[in-house]
Design a protein that fits this description.
Protein name: Endoplasmic reticulum resident protein 27
Number of strands: 10
Helix content: 25-40%
Keywords: Signal
GO molecular function: protein disulfide isomerase activity
Radius of gyration: 21 Å
Organism: Oncorhynchus tshawytscha
Distance between the termini: 61 Å
Number of helices: 9
Pfam family, one: Thioredoxin_6
Order of helices and strands: HEHEHEHEEHEHEHEHEEH
Strand content: 15-25%
Length: 256
């Protein structure tokens, strides 16, 4: 009877949290690790006491409603906290693209607003292939990964989905070495395209930007295959690209 009683109590506790926030509760290390492993990007609110009286809790729940495409959960289990390096109430983003954990420690935050938390989450939502825009640019350039593999492509092109999926499947091979970035050939990205000497009429093309050296290159024209892109990435890792002529004009650059 004890296991059955334990299960009933767990379900009752989970239902209380669900009614209050509609967010799942991760009650042990195994649940937390499984939640993190299940998606490219997840967010966990580590609250010792998840209630409306807790600083930042209500705002976190509201922010979660605006980022419905990202799995969000709560965790109060101290063993899971220790395993994941959490010391106090914290909102954390876990992402596979660069194997990174971004922490917003609430005790170090004077003011918390739902909009600000939603922006923090969206800004750091880096995936195996991340669409470039003004918001994700912040997270891309704050990442410790300095190499960017860029797919310049027009959204409505016939090979859009094929190439996007092809590079997305390749990205896990280069975790920690490259962030794979999707740059659409739209007006708001004209500056990024021009940096590589491109216009929307030239797409699709593949490029590399190395933040360490502030250098950039285009993969030679031709079919964009998995093997060609793989070799292109490896050429930077091996140092071979440094001897190749850069794309576009050699203008100092801090942001695409």
């Amino acid at each position: 009877m004890a296991p059955l009683l334990s299960l009933i109590l767990s379900l009752l506790a989970a239902s209380v949290i669900a009614e209050d926030s509609a967010l799942p509760s991760l009650n042990d290390v195994t649940a937390a690790e499984a939640f993190i492993e299940a998606s490219e990007v997840v967010v966990i609110g580590f609250f010792e006491t998840p209630s409306d009286e807790t600083f930042g809790y209500k705002e976190f729940v509201e922010a979660a409603k605006t980022v419905k495409h990202i799995p969000v959960a709560l965790c109060s289990d101290k063993e899971a906290w220790a395993k994941l390096g959490i010391a106090s109430d914290t909102i954390s983003i876990f992402r596979k693209a660069d194997n990174h954990q971004d922490n917003l420690q609430l005790s170090e935050t004077k003011k918390v607003e739902a909009d600000g938390l939603a922006r923090f989450i969206t800004m750091n939502e880096l995936r195996y292939i991340t669409e470039y825009n003004q918001v994700t640019a912040v997270g891309l350039f704050q990442s410790e990964v300095k190499g960017h593999l860029l797919l310049f492509i027009n959204r409505g092109s016939s090979d859009y989905e094929v190439l996007k999926d092809r590079l997305g499947a390749l990205a896990p091979e280069f975790v920690g070495k490259f962030l794979f970035v999707l740059v659409h050939g739209v007006k708001s990205n004209e500056k990024s395209l021009g940096y590589f000497g491109l216009t929307s009429r030239d797409l699709p093309r593949v490029g590399i930007y190395d933040r360490d050296s502030d250098m950039k290159w285009l993969m030679p024209e031709g079919e964009i295959t998995t093997e060609r892109v793989r070799k292109f990435c490896q050429s930077l890792i091996l140092g071979n690209l440094k001897e190749v002529k850069q794309a576009g004009e050699p203008v100092p650059k801090t942001e695409l």
